[in-house]
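Why do we care about 3D structure at all? Because function follows from shape, and shape follows, mostly, from sequence. That is the central idea of this module. The next example makes it concrete: a single protein chain, its amino acid sequence, and then its structure expressed as tokens.
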Amino acid sequence: MSSTFRFLQGVFPVTGQGLDKHELLDESLTYTVPEGRRAQVLYVRGGNASDELVVAVLVRDGVPMRWFPIGAKGDVHVPLRVVEDVEAGEVLELHVAAPAGVVGTVVVDLGLVEI
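And the structure:
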């Protein structure tokens, strides 16, 4: 069986609405597992240029799946080593939450393998 790597990544502006109010940064950070395939999340990396903590949120079919805090002017790299499968038809999105009033830039990189 062949595998294909997929990446959701980019540099995006963020405006905080509260740490409990995550939102999709950009449509390019959405991935739907094709029929007949499954996917596994391999890693999440992120950087934060603001002076406040922000949180990258991996969302599966509209429900938060994992939270990755990124410190003020900091970064994070979390290797996930195939924690679980994401099945055909399921939708993954990478959201961000930040404290209300925070304005900044985040860099995100989510690596997946489609099998």
